[in-house]
Amino acid sequence: MGDNAVLPCTLKPSITLVTWKIDPKVGGHCALSYLPNTNKTGRTSCSNSMNWKFRPDVDAALEIRQVGIAQEGNYTCEVVSTEGNFHEMYHLTVLVPPRLRLYCDDQGNPVCEAAAGRPAALVSWVLGSNSHPEEEGHDNGTVTVLSRFTECSTNVSNTTCMVFHLTGNWSKSMSC
């Protein structure tokens, strides 16, 4: 999320057409095309965030600038040459790292929050807890996971929350 993505497309000798066909989960289909015989490029309904990485006669890679959830979907590069038609297919999945927050609730219990991640994060406690994480889905496709430390023990002065996600793992400690 927010990074640039480059999807490569292998050129063949004697190409007559290169086309990127883009089918995002959100919004309509779009396409980029290149005709070598006229050295012309075309675009149909593609946002300005999607374009050729370099010149398509040199490198047919597609660059998506500042990737967002709206760009998630299927991308196909089709190269037509005298040798035949060649397809390279990609499925773009957008990951969003959660924001980790650890705080004390009104009863003095530690609460660990992994906010607005995609997919949902896994939240656990170093010392173990009877907590059942709660998930809240958001309209933009992200999920917030909330876990309350529920073990009642006078021996526990410091608790550590651990968050596991495809984009990384984090931990934070505190005492309430």
UniProtKB/TrEMBL annotation:
What's one GO BP annotation on this UniProt entry?
Answer: regulation of neuroinflammatory response
Q: Which UniProt keywords apply?
A: Disulfide bond, Glycoprotein, Membrane, Transmembrane, Transmembrane helix
Where does the UniProt annotation locate this protein?
A: Membrane
Q: How does it sit in the membrane?
A: Single-pass membrane protein
Protein origin, superkingdom: Eukaryota
Note the PROSITE patterns from the entry. IG_LIKE
Listed Pfam families: V-set
Q: Which InterPro entries match?
A: CD200R, Ig-like_dom, Ig-like_dom_sf, Ig-like_fold, Ig_V-set
Q: Which GO terms describe its cellular component?
A: external side of plasma membrane
Q: Any keyword Nucleotide-binding?
A: no
Which residues does the UniProt record annotate as the domain Ig-like? 1-93
MF terms in GO: signaling receptor activity
Q: Which Gene3D superfamilies match?
A: Immunoglobulins (2.60.40.10)
Q: Is Transmembrane helix given among the entry's keywords?
A: yes
Which PANTHER family does this UniProt record tie to the protein? CELL SURFACE GLYCOPROTEIN CD200 RECEPTOR 2, CELL SURFACE GLYCOPROTEIN OX2 RECEPTOR PRECURSOR
The family line of this record is: Belongs to the CD200R family.
Question: Which protein are we looking at?
Answer: MOR1B protein
Species of origin: Grallaria varia (variegated antpitta)
